[in-house]
Amino acid sequence: MEQMRIYFLDEVHPVLAQRLTAAGHHCILPIDDDARALSTCNGIVVRSSAVGKVAIDAAKDLKFIARVGSGLENIDVEHCRRKNILVLNSPEGNRDGVGETCVMLTLALMKVLVRANAQVRAGLWRREENRGTDLHGKTVGILGYGQMGSAFAEKLRGFGVKVLAHDKYRSGFDRAGIIECGLERLLRESDVISLHLPLTRETHHLADHDFFLRLGKPVWFLNTSRGAVVHTEALLDALDHGRVIAAGLDVLEFERPDLSGLDPLMEPFVQQRLLAHERVLLTPHLAGVTHEGRYKMATVLAEKILSAFPR
Fold it and tell me: Among all residues, which ones are annotated catalytic?
């Protein structure tokens, strides 16, 4: 493979450009002033920037688009497929961060951590009001058993839980400690439900009013995948009606596409209900945002690019 021009749309860990440069490729970084970069590049590296049809068509000799991360909703994957452009991502790199964050959110919700912390800081000492629930002996339902879902299952070892896992497009992962099952069983039996799904037309608002009505008992609910997999109003209604005990959300339906914050046009009534709800724990899309994960995602992606295009 001859030298490729690889255009970085976003800043990522420098090890990715270092590895590609050492292999003989030319990397054009975001700080570089090269107006011809996109039209003449052979590869694009992206984190949160969108790469749509116009950008793809502008690069006449584009061979690949590589995302430093897991989800691919910011890339027009279908158009890439039509043009025989390889699309790569690196979910292996931040799976540990996501798995550990899921454990953290679960325990924080079940032990009423946020409210107890706020009360002590306010001079209140309410022990009985903040009596927690043990994770031991509970059933955890993992919806989506790819890199992130399986990472959460791995981190649960030692907690004495039963893990139910459902994935519409994967099978054969039933083993000690993991029970592969259908969606209805997962909804019926789980005490904790955690979503680990990509955002597609099929998964958009998967967790809707009907989803929560099908729960067999009140649950602690986690979403660290993509915000729009959950219909926010349906989740809030489920919280208000006792079908969801508490929710830990690392992602929100109303995030800006570049993940830089919340959409200012989000409906005010949802904003008021969601952000003010004391049984909702919110973090700013940081489940996989760790120092180690940033490095690992870059190295994994470097290996995939160099494997696909050896010199």
Answer: 226, 255, 285
